[in-house]
Amino acid sequence: MGTSASPSGKNNDLAIDPTAFVEWTKANSRSLLIAGAIVVVGGASVLFARQSAALRNERAEVAYGTAQGAFYSGNLTQAKTDLEALVGRYPSTSGGTQGAMLLAQILYNDGKHDEGIKRLTAIQGSAPRQFASALEELIAAGYADSNRPDQAADHYLKAADASPFPAEQDGFRADAARILEAAGKADQAKAIWTKLAAAPGSPSSVEASLRLGELAAKVATP
Questions:
Q1: How far is CA 185 from the centre of its chain?
Q2: Cross-strand pairs, 11
Q3: Which residues does the chain have with pLDDT short of 70?
Q4: How many Cβ atoms are within 10 Å of 139's Cβ, its own excluded?
Q5: Distances (CA, A) of 134 to 11, 80, 88, 101, 138
Q6: How is 64-123 classified by DSSP, letter by letter?
């Protein structure tokens, strides 16, 4: 004989016995309460973390605005003090990252390129990802301004790798090629220009072709 079925046609084996369910919940009430508490605490922790991060970002932006105000008013001493406090307190925020970049530029202007570069490299691991290429570009500028073309070109190429925009990527590669060419490193510059010239859709392709022609003319000149 087949298994008996309810009038609705469903198998009784799948039905839940209300009395048994009540007894089970009574027997396991402590475990259920603990599990519920864990869910509530876990959700509250996530919410608290998100609110704390938002508050930190907001405070960092306010502090950055204050430091910017001092900078643009010409009070560089106060701007530097405010920026150092900002970077130290909110290193992983958008405002803190921008503060480190502005502080590096102030240090560059004071001729303290190594200190500025150190400030930038110190935050690279914690800075928001959208600043990756800008940080590499500013590090490259520090090396370029202090006459270290190899390091500058290396970081311009890293900036290209970090950028999500093809046009910007080629722009950084062109920066690397220019500084190498100016430093007399024609072969390295030529390799970069050749790749850029082969990309007809690139905004740097025309310049790349011209640069290759100039390099070829120099080689041909006795």
A1: 31
A2: 5
A3: 1-18, 20-22, 24-26, 29, 31-53, 221-222
A4: 26
A5: 65, 20, 20, 9, 6
A6: HHHHHHHHHTT-HHHHHHHHHHHHHH-TTSHHHHHHHHHHHHHHHHTT-HHHHHHHHHHH
What is the pLDDT at residue 42?
Answer: 52
- Whether domain 38-127 has CATH 1.25.40.10: the reply is yes
pLDDT the model gives residue 83: 96
Q: What is the pLDDT of residue 54?
A: 76
pTM value is 0.76
Domains of the chain: which residue ranges?
A: 38-127, 149-222
Task: Name the helix (H) or strand (E) containing 7.
Answer: none
Instruction: Take residue 82 and report the two structure tokens written for it.
Output: 């405010």
Angle CA 128–130–131, to nearest 5: 75
Contact 99, 115 (CB under 8 A): no
pLDDT of residue 91: 86
- Other C-beta atoms closer than 10 Å to the C-beta of 169 total 19
Q: In this structure, which long-range contacts are made by residues 143-146, counting pairs with CB atoms below 8 Å and at least 24 apart in sequence?
A: 143/113, 143/117, 144/179, 145/108, 145/113, 146/113, 146/114
